[in-house]
């Protein structure tokens, strides 16, 4: 591999590590909403695919390492995947050891990365011989995936009932665009629809603020006071194998391995299931919480890495909740990437290995050290100076820009419509995975219904 390309990969990975260390600590940031748009922009700018992949892997690792910090310090998840850890982290905080919580979660992330990277690469290459068979049934698999994920939702019947109407809405807008000549017939507007689903809850909330009665009924708050307990900074270089006990290392590794093999399942569901399973028999509250959060953090890293790499290397189609959400731009970002021409078809096995190792190594070496050593200072800075609303506003503006680039002014209205429906469905308990699977399978679903 060219030395200059390796240097670009390292630079991109370093940029991702810094950016997502800050974003990860910002409270309430959704992984899909903050990873997908930035990755998409990098792809559309024409950046080398292997450099984009190194960026994305570094971003995953950094985001997963840092989104546990506000959980431990303030009980506020830095992302959706960190939400299941709040209860256990608050137990450790109640017992006066929030610093232990941070070290345990960050160390669990390291274990998850170390397990997931080699296992994902091996499993992906093992699945390559079956790729043609799997991809030939892509539409049916997306539809089946939507049904499976719908059955895993809390409101499963609502999720199942929403599949066909949501598919009709998506395909109906595409036919409208073809009919009025906004885009050439047969051109599928995809990117902006995908991003509309991603920030659907934000669009819904903004529209609700325009409703007078709804706006006036909202509770008002002053400046929020967050108390941070001062902790002593450790002088030695952090070592995850010393921070975690042997049993915690073992359960974290096992959870990561299971999470890697179940890459097609919901990451949040697997995190809750395995996290509670490995700690259920422990009586001591501190030991139980420590075991749970270290295993959960390991699992979240593993599911994100495997959910990206395995479909990308083996199949070339996004057949996992992670691939169809945060990593979608690596598979489908017209005109640069399509399902018939993306990183799967462009990069060699060596490219995938180099990009993954560089991205993971850079993020681990930078972010892990910073999180364990300076988590409280970073958290204080982000809580004080980086408003959550500013980040959401930035991504919302980016979505509107890409919507205009996709199909002009009419598409801004279309994206707002999809965002409203997606936001309502998300609030009612229909998760992103179902909606993204429907987005992919919409042409096939409508064609089958229409006969």
UniProtKB/TrEMBL annotation:
InterPro entries: DUF112_TM (IPR002823). This is Tripartite tricarboxylate transporter TctA family protein. The chain crosses the membrane at residues 6-26, 38-62, 68-86, 106-128, 134-151, 158-177, 189-210, 252-274, 309-331, 352-372, 392-425. Residues 11-431 form the DUF112 domain. Keywords: Membrane, Transmembrane, Transmembrane helix. It comes from Filibacter tadaridae. It comes from the Bacteria. The keyword Acyltransferase does not apply.
């Amino acid at each position: 591999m060219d030395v200059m390309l390796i240097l670009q990969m390292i630079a991109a990975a370093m940029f991702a590590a810094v950016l997502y260390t800050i974003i990860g600590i910002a409270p309430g940031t959704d992984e899909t909403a903050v990873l997908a748009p930035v990755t998409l922009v990098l792809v559309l700018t024409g950046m080398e695919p292997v450099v984009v992949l190194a960026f994305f892997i570094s971003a995953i690792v950094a985001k997963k390492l840092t989104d546990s910090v506000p959980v431990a310090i303030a009980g506020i998840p830095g992302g959706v995947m960190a939400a299941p850890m709040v209860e256990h982290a608050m137990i450790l905080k109640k017992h006066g050891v929030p610093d232990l919580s941070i070290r345990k979660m960050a160390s669990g992330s390291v274990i998850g990365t170390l397990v997931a990277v080699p296992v994902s690469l091996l499993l992906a290459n093992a699945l390559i011989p079956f790729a043609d068979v799997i991809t030939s049934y892509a539409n049916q698999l997306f539809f089946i995936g939507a049904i499976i994920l719908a059955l895993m939702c809390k409101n499963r019947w609502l999720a199942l009932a929403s599949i066909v109407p949501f598919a009709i809405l998506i395909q109906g807008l595409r036919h409208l665009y073809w009919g009025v000549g906004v885009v050439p017939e047969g051109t599928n507007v995809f990117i902006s629809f995908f991003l509309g689903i991603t920030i659907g809850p934000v669009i819904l909330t903004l529209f609700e603020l325009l409703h007078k009665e709804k706006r006036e009924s909202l509770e008002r708050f002053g400046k929020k006071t967050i108390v941070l307990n001062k902790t002593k900074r450790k002088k030695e270089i952090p070592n995850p194998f010393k921070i975690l006990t042997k049993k915690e290392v073992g359960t974290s590794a096992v959870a990561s391995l299971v999470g890697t093999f179940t890459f097609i399942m919901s990451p949040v569901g697997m995190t809750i299931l395995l996290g509670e399973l490995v700690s259920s028999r422990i009586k001591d509250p501190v030991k139980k919480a420590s075991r749970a959060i270290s295993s959960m953090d390991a699992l979240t890293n593993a599911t994100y890495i495997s959910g990206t790499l395995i479909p990308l290397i083996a199949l070339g189609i996004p057949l996992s909740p992670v691939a169809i959400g945060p990593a979608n731009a690596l598979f489908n970002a017209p005109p640069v990437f399509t399902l018939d021409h993306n990183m799967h078809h462009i990069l060699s096995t060596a490219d995938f290995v180099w990009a993954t190792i560089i991205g993971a190594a850079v993020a681990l070496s930078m972010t892990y050290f910073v999180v364990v050593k300076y988590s409280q200072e970073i958290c204080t800075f982000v809580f004080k100076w980086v408003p959550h609303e500013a980040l959401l506003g930035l991504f919302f503006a980016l979505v509107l820009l890409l919507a205009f680039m996709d199909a002009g002014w009419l598409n801004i209205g279309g994206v707002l419509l999809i965002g409203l429906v997606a936001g309502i469905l998300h609030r009612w308990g229909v998760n992103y995975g179902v909606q993204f699977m429907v987005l992919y399978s919409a042409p096939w679903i409508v064609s089958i219904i229409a006969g």
